[in-house]
Amino acid sequence: MKISSLKNEFDQFDQDFEIDETTICADLGIDPQKIADNVLQTIAEPTVKKNRRRFITVFVAAAALSITAVCSTVIATSGVLRPDFTDVYQGDISALEIRGTETFEFAPLDQNLQAEFIGIVNTEDRIVASVNISKKDGTPFTSSDGIQNPSGFLLEKLLPEVKNNENHSQRPTDYSVRLKEQQYGFDYPYVFYVEDENGNICEQSADAVEYVLSDNGKTLRMFITAKTVDKDLTGGYVYITSRYTKAYQYDKKLKAFNTLDETTYADAKYFCQIDGCDMDKDCKWKISSGQYALYTIKTERLALPFDMHFKIDYQLPDKIEKTLDNSNAPQLIRQGDQAQMTISPTKITLSSHKTLTTDEINQMQSVSPAFREEDKMTEENPTISIPECVSAFSVSKADSLQSYDDIDYENSKLLMTDGSVLYFILTDADLQYEAAPDSSVTIKEARTITYSSHFVNKKLNSINADEVLRIFRTTVIDPEKIAKVIINGDLIYAKTGYEDMTVPAPETYTEYTPEDFAEESIAESSDDKNYLPDMTKYEPLEKTSNEMRYILQQYTQEHSLLLTSVNTDINTRSKDDPSIAINRAVFTAEGATENLRHFLQHLLKEEQHNLFIISASLSSNQDENGSRELTVTIENPFVADDAYKSEQDVYSFVIARWGTLQRSLPIEQFFETETDMEKPYLKLTMQQTDFSKQDHSSYSDIRIDPNHKPTQALTLANYQFKQWTDEELNILNSRHGTNGSTPVILHDVNDKDNTAFCSNSLELIISGTQEKVLKTVQYLQEYETKNLFITSVFIFHRDNLHSEYHLKLTLANPYPLRAALLNEQQRDAYIQSHYGAVEWNKMLSTYFSAIENDSISAEFTIASNRKTDAPVVKADIWANFATYDDIAAYKDTINRNPYFTVTNSMNVQRIYSLPPQEDYLSANFTLTTTYFIRSS
Amino acid sequence: MEVEDLARRLRKRDEKALREVILRLTPLVATIIYNVSGGELTREDIEEVTSDVFITLWNNTDKIVPEKLKGYVCCIAKTRAINKLKTVKSKNIVDIDDYDPEDDFSISEHTEHQDLNRELRELIDTLPTIDREIMIRYYYYYQTTSRIAEVMKLNPETVKSKLRRTREKLKAKLLERGYGV
Predict the structure, then answer these.
(1) How many other C-beta atoms are found inside a 10 Å radius of the C-beta of residue A572?
(2) What residue spans in chain B does CATH classification 1.10.10.10 cover?
(3) Is B175 at the interface with chain A, CB within 8 A?
(4) The complex's ipTM?
(5) Which of A:124-163 have CB within 8 Å of B?
(6) Each residue's pLDDT tens digit, A744-753
(7) How many CB atoms lie within 10 A of CB B79?
(8) CATH no. for B109-176
(9) How far is B22 from chain A (nearest CA, A)?
(10) Residue A517: what pLDDT?
(11) Has domain B3-90 been given CATH number 3.30.160.390?
(12) Given A193, A767, A843, A913, which residue has the most CB atoms within 10 angstroms?
């Protein structure tokens, strides 16, 4: 028998240990008299309560009976458009017909079950019906033995016997719908069938039923998906017979992998074997935190006995069809070929179907170098590769594989009736060949253009290369809303009445040229450190994407730079003032360092014209020509709803958000220091937000790699605000020295909190005995009145041999960036909210007294409570343990500790070692405490 | 009146005795609740749990052993405090969906437990007085080491080292008696 912990055991004692009570009792201000009155009053009440309870029970039972009587009849609801289908389709779902039917019948064998029919949606190739199942008594679909966490509670798909037709009970799945992430990676057995009007089982019913458990565990939403194949079916009945389903819960995390390939899969199997389980049967994969985690599962059977059926009126949505040939689509269709175009709500299909003789193919072969000798059709090789040139389309494979930068997107697009444009590229052709005995070959070719939400409402220049291929979800478009279809430069369809509609012309930028501000003096000299943008000239005007691109192109050319990438269409609204819109651009320019510096300064002038530099990052690598890469983010704020804004309001907003920082200084410094110090990267970030609106998002920092001279870093980081004074640094040095600790000023680690303050931080390492490090921490805390705050403590090493601890402390010396905008009170409030007053030494001594494990590291930081935004201290603990019992005991100690609450997942991983070393468990978890924060 | 007499009267469902017990034991019960909660419970919470302890006592008067009344009340107080703490803490828990070792943790059956309880008690009684008191204060009454040091007029470090040594001693003895620790 094992003991968990002494505390646990002591809790079981019911003996009196005869310790002097007076030394046990604390003065808590609890009035025994009041307790006695409460207790005696409570124990006098039960008689009344019991009677009332009895009455309620009878009433509820009677009510339940009457409700059962009503609900046991057919439940039928009419279909109403609800957001329930958004997991299946994106886009304008209302464009499609969503129907409920009055034929829905639900016959539960367990009278506690009830169902609500949500509706059916269908496109040309699938139908999805949705039904909610719940319990009448409102209890969740959870078992009594502790499966209570809905997020970890998944349901296997039920596999009920199919009514009237045994043959359909085991049809394999050929299609599954991606619903929620929790469903990822699971396959779904066939579960229902569709019968036509004459009672015949239809061919097209092989598909899936999925359950999604609601967050409260009380509703099972059932999605029934059918995929239609070739047959036209206009109506029929769906029958579902259910008796139970399998539920499972994630149990123990065995291993997590960053990727899932053959090697990791084999590893996973190995880990399962070690753990004595069968990966296929006993484990499930789960994606969490971007990793593929393998869990063992606990399974159980959930009774879900019901029959249901409903009628579907299966109507294909309207399609637009047209025959294309070289005369009406000269750039798309080859001479002599034909293709059929079909525009449906989910895609555009281009298909051609033709038969060629061997001679014709051979002729093509002779003109097609790509067609090799072994590709010839022979008797032994009746299925052959066919040269690309047999394609009916003049879109070559090469075209569809070319770099996204080279694609002319204007060539293929949809114009919607509302004026929006949808761009797409043609996919590779799906070519099928069939050789006939008469030496002819039938060639079926199809190209499918699936709509993607990525394209909708996006302009040409905002398509990022990596976005194009990410088309996972189907977007549904009402064909009626398509005004024009242009493919490969050919207008292949125009809706009646929209023939004259043109693509919106690119926005013009003639009103704004660099000449407009040519007379402005440009601070090109690093000596001109007093440069300050003249905010009175600020123009609260929108710069369109094209204008921004134009400016960037002009400036880069002027400074002999190459604009290598630009994304100018990142548009948002200000969070704290939604009437202000912000256009953002991110671009990269290449060229000589000096040219980049001038370019950035030139761009700085744009602040007067409403284009603010938010961040700049300079590459450290220089090519053989001395060229570097500069990536810049700029923002253009403007008043979107100007009816509500005065000039002054806008001016104040802009001043508050983008400030009047003397940016020329850090920009100069940015380049100069970069040259002086060899380091992998240097990044300048600027951002301000109106502090008075409580949106503390202002900071200015220069992040620098730690491997360089610390003093320079400090000087740089605090260049224009408030530096660490020599005195302060001396104090730190000398005082730590007297405490036996060694301060190491590492580097600036500026404020992460988006504040209106420069945090002016530094890190130092102190080492020593527990007592000494605590003393140092205590001493540093005394400096909090002098604006020196400990913001984090990282215990990264514990030297048991010498009983020493090594602590890395982060200290902040916060200083407002724009003193004029802040009064004393705001400053104090800021400091209170950001730096708390954490009694670090007390917290640490508590921590030290709680640790018994030799290999524990911990980091304590001030964080914000997600809900209340109040400052809390967060502790991340990493520790190694021999057994799960050790973890339990440790966690038990932590939980009994008054100062901490475990607030995050405990992540336990077994680390396998080779003998003679033993395997161990690596655990990491987060604790939070609010205990030591004094509220302001 | 002695606590034992009150306990006997409680067994006879004497409400006056209950009032007396409440007046006598409230400071101890409240302190235990406070210590167990480590300051996480508000005064209102402590009052609520204290009342709950005595209501539980009243509903279980048949289980009272007169000589063990105080211990029994302490035991209820600790259980109630831990339960309360769990409800308070659970409000803060963001997400514990991974393996929780505590779920698997169980200390065998009741009878075995009683054996262990008895043996542990025996071992505790063999400890030197000071060590025993420190241990009981720390583990049973949930006092902090600094508070123990204060009331026993010891150096906090001494308290900690004594605790550690006593723990090791107990561990060794329990191992000798066949218990895994």
Answers:
(1) 12
(2) 109-176
(3) no
(4) 0.74
(5) 146, 149, 151-152
(6) 333 333 333 4
(7) 15
(8) 1.10.10.10
(9) 6
(10) 27
(11) no
(12) A193
